[in-house]
Amino acid sequence: MVAAAGTLKAPQVLERRRITIADPQLPGSKQPYHTAAELPFSQAEISVRKALESSRALAVDAILASVECLRSQGHEVVGCGLLLGSGRPLPELPAILASHPLLHTAEGQMFRDVLSWAARECNLPVTAVPEKQLSAASLSAIDSLGKAIGPPWTQDQKFATVVALAALALA
């Protein structure tokens, strides 16, 4: 999670943190579809639903904590940016469970959906940006921030910053 201010030409990173949206105490929560694929279908549906509900609760808690931290520093939180994957529609659960590549796709989609849902629960508008729409120029524009804020300055943080600035521009 990256909180940003400013613009792409004058960006500022206010906060960055890893948030946990898969409960390590809940078996299978990190890869719920992989876990479900090993179960009879009736149990698989329940397993995926439990992981989803748990992840939603964790995401709301993480977003609320971030918002509170930013507000305590005098910042107004006006929205949430979310990086999207390929956007290909998923089939029904039985087809997902029968295809190993779809297990990965479904898990990525589930966690993005969880974050989007949680942001809306926290009354934050969500700006979704497909990864393929991120330009090399926009990523290059924020590359130098890494020196100012220190390591780590990973690709996922760079992507999150560009998407956060896009959400801010639309707020």
Could you give a quick summary of the protein structure above?
The chain is of the alpha+beta class and 171 residues long. The protein contains 7 helices and 4 strands; from the N terminus they run ββααβααβααα.
What is the overall silhouette? globular
Order of helices and strands: EEHHEHHEHHH
Strand content: 5-15%
Low-confidence region ranges: none
As for the CATH topology, it is Putative cytoplasmic protein
What is the CATH first-level class name? Answer: Mainly Alpha
Instruction: Please report the number of helical segments.
Output: 7
- State the strand order across the main sheet: 1-2
Q: Tally the beta strands.
A: 4
Our measurement of the CA-to-CA distance between the termini, rounded to an integer number of angstroms, reads 18 Å
Find the structural class using helix and strand composition.
Answer: alpha+beta
Helix fraction?
A: 40-55%
Q: What average pLDDT do the residues reach?
A: 95
- Write the CATH architecture name: Orthogonal Bundle
Spatial extent as radius of gyration: 17 Å
Count up the domains. Answer: 1
Largest sheet: 2 strands, antiparallel
Primary descriptors:
alpha+beta, two-stranded antiparallel ribbon, globular, Putative cytoplasmic protein, 171 residues, 4 strands, two-stranded parallel ribbon, 7 helices
Structural write-up:
The protein has 171 residues and is of the alpha+beta class. It has one domain: Putative cytoplasmic protein, CATH 1.10.3100. It has seven helices and four strands; from the N terminus they run E-E-H-H-E-H-H-E-H-H-H. Strand 1 (2-6) and strand 2 form a beta hairpin. The protein is globular and about 55 Å long.
